[in-house]
Amino acid sequence: MEERKTCICREASPDEWQDAMGLAWRVFLRFNAADYPEDGVKNFFHFITDSTLHRMFLAGSYHLFCAYVNDVMVGMITVRKTEHISLLFVDGAHHKQGIGMKLVDTACRYCIAGSGSGSARLTVHAAPYAVEFYHGLGFCDLMPEQEADGIRFTPMEIRL
């Protein structure tokens, strides 16, 4: 009989930051990097290793939630200002198992709690690899695909 895997999503502690950014980098290289020019890959790496971003996390203005299966980090999502998904990555071995959806749900609940109003929304700049995933969750395109600093993305939102 196959062991049932339970996924737990929770807010990350400061000592989990490096592991989460390492996971983001590994998954980005495997699934996203081919869609970006060299400067986009470099800019993404600089973004996830930026000390300012880490300080924002430590100060509480940039939130990190992690997904664990059997006590192993298999996914992560970051939220800026209770309204924007900044990063979402799930280890390739755990794709299509509902972990990304569970992480987005965690972010949505966090944003609703932090919005203080009934008109909350959650935005994301979806990478080409993730556009259909976000469409499947009900996100709508705000504009066509764009590129900034070598990073390709489609601005999207969902009303909460």
Secondary structure elements and their pairing?
Blueprint: E1 7-11, H1 17-31, H2 38-48, H3 51-59, E2 62-69, E3 72-80, E4 84-90, H4 99-115, E5 121-126, H5 131-136, E6 140-141, E7 146-148, E8 151-159
Parallel strand pairs: 4-5
Antiparallel strand pairs: 1-2, 2-3, 3-4, 5-8, 6-8, 7-8
Helix pairs in contact: 1-2
Model description:
The chain is α+β, with helices and mostly antiparallel strands. The protein has one domain (7-159): Gcn5-related N-acetyltransferase (GNAT) (Aminopeptidase, 3-Layer(aba) Sandwich). The chain has helices spanning 17-31, 38-48, 51-59, 99-115, 131-136; strands at residues 7-11, 62-69, 72-80, 84-90, 121-126, 140-141, 146-148, 151-159. Strands 1, 2, 3, 4, 5, 6, 7 and 8 form an eight-stranded mixed sheet that branches. Helix 1 runs antiparallel to helix 2 (38-48).
